[in-house]
Design goal:
The complex is a heterodimer of chains A (about 800) and B (about 350). Chain A has about 800 residues and is α+β, with helices and mostly antiparallel strands. Chain A has 20 helices and 40 strands. In chain A, the strands form ten sheets. Chain A has a seven-stranded mixed β-sheet, with helices on both faces. In chain A, strands 3, 4, 5, 6, 7 and 10 form a six-stranded antiparallel β-sheet that branches. With about 350 residues, chain B is α+β, with helices and mostly antiparallel strands. Classes of the chains: A alpha+beta (about 800), B alpha+beta (about 350). Strand 27 of chain A pairs parallel with strand 1 of chain B, so a sheet runs across the interface.
Chain lengths: ~800, ~350
């Protein structure tokens, strides 16, 4: 909402403040000023001059030399403007003055343009005559200005007067951010009321008086509302003998500063009232209204209607229409019909000022793809009581402007108006909630300025109809707070309270981040929604369960249409971005949810599973990633040794280089090298390794519990075993036997050699482990170790393993 | 004998001073003080000295021995020091050669900012918790005093799954879960992902993060809200940070406010960063609307509360002077490595 301060001051005549003071004060009482523009910012020393004589320039065909009377002095000015003649009164900027822009109407320079005396083709010029563009505006807002050339004032403009003043440019346009609850502030009167309360000055709204022509409006038109749920009030008034012409300067200026182009007196009046009262109005050519009858009712499904922009629209039964005796003449609150629109031949006009259901207008406008200034106002919800005030104001302006003859009376069709709301006055509770000590007197002063009436008998505050946002106690508290001053409310901390902290899950996630980063992985973040094409990119089978994803019904596009069921797309996309930007050795991790529906379509919360995903390319291999997984799990306090099952069956991973990560018999995640076909799909031309850990499975095995086990006092006994192992036997199987059969004294074991090749037949491989035995309580004897070794050897033999000779 | 002794001593001392390797010094030690050394030999001959002379002579021998030993030790130490000096000289390195850094990953700026915020509120006694990202309409809107026809539902451009389920548009939904699951006193901080149908550009993302705060107890006041958030701003942006509360509107709080902080770049004088105003808008807040409390079976006559919501990306972008939101979701390591 943009409004000139001069318009606000028209209703708060005692308001005096600088632009900055106004900005700060209004913002602090809740009418946020987004910015302001002083219209005379770059205008200086510009006066009304009268052209006394015009001579041709001796050396230039396109220039003329003018003698200009400025009242106190006479100046010679050279100009190239084609439109001036002797006797014209024009804006003249004198030596040292400033104008806002060039005559071409291009973008305005930040600091304006300074004007100096000078010579044009050898003839002295002591200033410049200005076009409207040079004054920082244009013909949209000053329609009387010539298309090309100097602005010319009306004949009665006093010579020597301040031209900036005459043009109404000593003014500032403020832009407000109005919150959605303050419908009343989408109007000049609403903001003026707030300004009056803010600056503690009287609010003086316009006095509305319609004389009328003595005829009865009921002889011209009747109005009937069939669907009162969508239209609680519809007021109509009739204006005869329309005389078109330009609206007066003051009205044009105010509209122009609000960004509305002046058109003619009739259009300007409806626009003016919309700005001033926040009430959209519509005007019909009464001669086109069949039967002089207005019927407000829902449209028929599939009906077609041509709006005044010439477009044919398809209607439905939830769109409210204004009809005459024969059919629709306007889409209520959105746009009039071509069949009833005002033309230059109109003689009698029917003004409409109505209240429509905001939500209905909003939805209808959306369905029709037709948002107008009017629908924008209606959808916020207008005050039915305001409709009558607004139409009367419009008619008073018609009379004031001599735009036509107003017929007496208003046709006022309506549902019973809601009674004004009342709210109990609870001063102690207000102070208790605010933490303040505002006196009842001070509260009363605030209510008075806001037009809230207090009744001592009932202890009730009566809320004016334009304040639909005031519904209960807390709203009253806010009114007190904002006019008492948010800044004056004290600053305290809540009493009591316990020690705060992270939930256990969040603590573990923080630990995961620490460990991941310690392992060289940087944290990435990717979107939760992605394209269904992801499943194909990851080579998932047509019936893969991962394809059962939750779909967004109104996504930004197919690429953001499903909630991810596995985290790899984000990771691979990020790695691809890095790879294609030639970043080397990239290691990323992400902690984010996947969304597993319990059923589709979704009726209840899905399973949101936090996934810790690692991915890297560059230095390292499968076992590097395996090391990261193990470092993570032991860092999180997992006590047992993890196992790996190569039968993990992930289609997006290398078939021979993948494994499920198993802890205590349960799959807690997987890792592997990404399938080269998937790398191709993501345009990564190197090997990529990933690991995915399912945090809900990890969480139960984590622990902050640590117990010191002492530092070994007795020596360890080491034995190396060198074996010939069938190729199909996995290291994991051997290690399982070592752990199970080594007994308590087997402290640790380590694979130190593995060999496949010429020295050994092709069905076998050679593997060598170093075993370390230790007893915590005594020095181990050979026989103890031998017994353990024997058990181990027996176990290994069962796998077809032989000691290497 | 004394002469002999002096001779040995003089010889020893001159040998020691000439000894330029540890080996030579050791040879000297052996030849003089060793089992077959010269001084040892004299000591052995002490028995030939008249008994009354023995203590005196013995003392002389011991003195000589002590002096030689002392000289030897000093010479050894000196020599070792020289050797060490020589070694150190030979080991001079160019300390300006490049370092060998351990490869450590970097935390996402969002996480760094979030942990900062969490640290502050944990210090003020807040429990950090979470809520679901796919949410029911009731928790995202209705329970927050945003009924079916409320314009705010359109304003927020919600992603819907179906009529009842949606992607939460605000972490405020966790307020309701918190009040349903726990009775007052409640003091929680709930960070998380939220979603709005905004096209991606330098300042918008369809997926971003908010941090919700909620306090409900007896006698919680607007003054408490101001105090808490002023404390937060100082902790986050520096001790000199000033705050300004402006009236605003949210359906689920009343009175409501937006909080601005004095620009931490120019200190409030006005600069490009704060668009000349000296202030930066940082969060929305207010007193929990009685209707919201009622929906959660909390009596608004007995309890009051305040709530606030901060945009995490906004904090991260401001604090780390990141000029394009898209950088946060690209995961280019050249970006991440700067944090």
């Amino acid at each position: 909402m943009n409004t000139a301060l001069s318009w606000i001051k028209a209703y708060v005549p005692e308001l005096e403040c600088t632009d900055q003071e106004y900005t700060d004060a209004m913002t602090l009482t809740g009418t946020k000023v987004e910015g302001f523009e002083r219209l005379d910012k770059n205008l200086k020393d510009i006066y009304v001059g009268k052209i006394l004589s015009i001579e041709k320039h001796p050396d230039a065909d396109k220039l003329i030399v003018c003698q200009v009377d400025l009242g106190d002095k006479q100046l010679q000015i050279v100009t190239g403007a084609p439109n001036v003649k002797v006797g014209d009164k024009v804006p003249v900027v004198i030596d040292g003055g400033k104008v806002a822009g060039g005559h071409d109407g291009g973008p305005l320079p930040e600091d304006g343009i300074e004007i100096k005396n000078g010579k044009l083709r050898g003839v002295e010029s002591f200033g410049m005559m200005c076009s409207i563009e040079e004054l920082g505006s244009d013909r949209n807002f000053y329609p009387e200005a010539p298309e090309y050339g100097i602005y010319i004032f009306p004949e009665d403009t006093p010579v020597g007067a301040d031209a900036i003043e005459v043009l109404g440019l000593h003014d500032t346009v403020f832009e407000y951010e109005i919150t959605s609850n303050r419908v009343d502030c989408y109007s000049v009167l609403g903001i003026a009321r707030e300004a009056a309360a803010t600056f503690k000055k009287p609010f003086v709204p316009p006095v509305v008086n319609v004389k009328g022509n003595g005829e009865d409006v009921n002889n011209y038109v009747s109005i009937e509302i069939e669907d009162k749920d969508l239209c609680p009030r519809y007021c109509g008034r009739v204006v005869k003998n329309i005389k078109f012409g330009p609206s007066p300067e003051w009205m044009q200026r105010r509209l122009a500063k609000s960004g509305i182009r002046p058109i003619n007196n009739l259009v300007d009046i409806t626009n003016y009232v919309m700005e001033e009262y926040g009430q959209p109005m519509h005007a019909f050519d009464l001669s086109t209204i069949h039967g002089g009858k207005i019927i407000v009712k829902r449209a028929e499904d599939g009906a077609r209607f041509v709006t005044l922009d010439g477009q044919e629209r398809t209607l439905d039964k939830d769109i409210l229409m204004i009809n005459d005796a024969e059919g629709p003449v306007a889409i209520a609150g959105i746009m009039g019909g071509e069949n009833s629109m005002i033309t230059e031949n109109v003689t009698t006009v029917l003004f409409e000022s109505a209240a429509f259901n905001g939500a209905n207008i909003r939805k209808s406008a959306k369905r029709l793809g037709l948002r107008t200034d009017a629908s924008g106002k209606f959808e916020k919800g207008v005050d039915p009581r305001n409709a009558l005030d607004a139409i009367n104001r419009a008619c008073a302006l018609v009379e004031e402007l001599g735009c036509g003859e107003v017929v007496d009376g208003v046709v006022d069709a309506k549902a019973p108006l809601k009674e004004l709301r009342t709210i109990p006055f609870e001063p102690e509770r207000i102070n208790a909630m605010l933490g303040t000590d505002v006196s009842v007197d001070e509260m009363m002063t605030i209510f008075d300025r806001l037009e809230l009436k207090y009744d001592k008998e009932t202890n009730l505050l009566t809320i004016p109809s334009f304040r639909q946002d005031l519904e209960g106690f807390c709203d009253i508290a806010e009114e007190v707070a904002r006019f008492y001053g948010y800044d004056k409310i004290p600053v305290t901390l809540p009493a009591g309270g316990n020690a705060g902290g992270l939930s256990y899950k969040l603590r573990i996630e923080q630990k995961c981040r620490d460990i991941a980063e310690y392992c060289g992985f940087s944290q990435g973040m990717t979107y939760s929604f992605e394209s269904p094409k992801v499943f194909d990119k990851l080579l998932l089978a047509a019936d893969a369960t991962e394809r059962n994803a939750i779909t967004i019904s109104n996504p930004l596009g197919e690429d953001f249409s499903i909630m991810r069921t596995l985290p790899l797309n984000g990771m691979l996309t990020s790695l691809s971005t890095n790879f294609n930007r030639r970043n080397k050795n990239v290691r990323l991790y992400e902690l984010a949810n996947i969304y597993i529906p319990k059923e589709l379509p979704l009726v209840d919360y899905p399973d949101e599973r936090m996934q810790l995903t690692f991915g890297f390319y560059g230095d390292g291999d499968f076992f590097t990633m395996k090391g990261v997984v193990e470092t993570l799990l032991s860092g999180l306090g997992a006590k047992k040794r993890e196992e790996y099952d190569p039968a993990s069956g992930k289609p997006f991973l290398h078939p021979g280089r993948q494994a499920n990560i198993i802890y205590d018999g349960e799959v807690i995640g997987y890792l592997g090298e990404v399938h080269p076909a998937v790398c191709d799909n993501y345009d990564i031309k190197t090997r990529v390794y990933v690991a995915v850990l399912d945090m809900p499975k990890i969480l139960p095995v984590t622990s902050y519990d640590r117990k010191f086990e002492g530092i070994a006092k007795f020596p360890a006994v080491t034995r190396d075993i060198s074996m010939v192992v069938p190729r199909t036997v996995l290291a994991g199987q051997i290690e399982k036997i070592l752990s199970q059969r080594g007994g308590k004294i087997l402290e640790k074991f380590e694979l130190f050699d593995i060999y496949e090749g010429e020295q050994i037949d092709k069905d076998h491989k050679s593997m060598a482990y170093a075993l370390s035995f230790r007893d915590k309580t005594k020095t181990l004897q050979d026989e103890d170790v031998n017994a353990a070794m024997k058990k181990i050897m027996n176990g290994l033999e069962s796998l077809g393993i032989e000691l290497r000779k | 004998m004394q002469e002999q002794l002096n001779e040995i001593k003089a010889k020893a001392l001159s040998l020691i001073s000439a000894g330029d390797t540890p080996e030579k010094l050791n040879e000297i030690k052996v030849s003089i003080l060793g089992k077959k050394g010269e001084l040892t030999a004299i000591m052995k001959s002490l028995k030939d000295v008249a008994p009354e002379e023995r203590p005196k002579v013995g003392q002389m021998i011991n003195d000589a021995r002590a002096e030689i030993e002392k000289n030897l030790e000093e010479a050894t130490a000196r020599l070792q020091a020289q050797l060490r000096d020589a070694k150190l000289k030979a080991e001079v390195i160019d300390v300006t050669l490049p370092s060998k850094k351990p490869v450590i990953g970097h935390r996402h700026p969002n996480s760094i900012a979030l942990e900062e915020v969490e640290r502050i509120f944990i210090g003020l006694g807040y429990e950090v918790c979470e809520g679901p990202e796919i949410e029911k309409d009731y928790y995202n809107f209705e329970a927050l005093n945003i009924p079916a026809d409320h314009p705010a539902k359109d304003e927020q451009d919600t992603f819907y799954i179906n009529a009842d389920m949606l992607l939460r548009t605000q972490t405020s939904s966790t307020q309701i879960h918190a009040m349903e699951n726990d009775k007052p006193p409640i003091r929680i901080l709930a960070p998380g992902r939220v979603f709005r149908a905004d096209e991606v550009d330098a300042t918008h993302s369809p997926s971003f993060h908010q941090i919700e705060g909620l306090v409900v107890d007896k006698n919680i006041t607007f003054a408490d809200l101001k105090g808490t958030l002023a404390e937060f701003a100082k902790e986050l942006f520096g001790e000199d940070t000033k705050v300004k509360f402006r009236p605003h509107h949210f359906p689920f709080t009343e009175p409501s406010a937006e909080m601005d902080v004095s620009c931490f770049k120019c200190g409030g004088k006005g600069c490009r960063f704060c668009k000349g105003s000296g202030w930066i808008e940082i969060l929305g807040c207010g007193m929990v609307h009685p209707r919201v409390l009622e929906k959660c079976d909390i009596d608004p006559k007995e309890y009051t509360g305040f709530a606030f919501g901060v945009g995490l990306e906004r904090i991260a972008l401001l604090k780390y002077e990141i000029d394009d939101m898209r950088l946060l979701y690209e995961n280019d390591v050249r970006f991440l490595n700067q944090f």
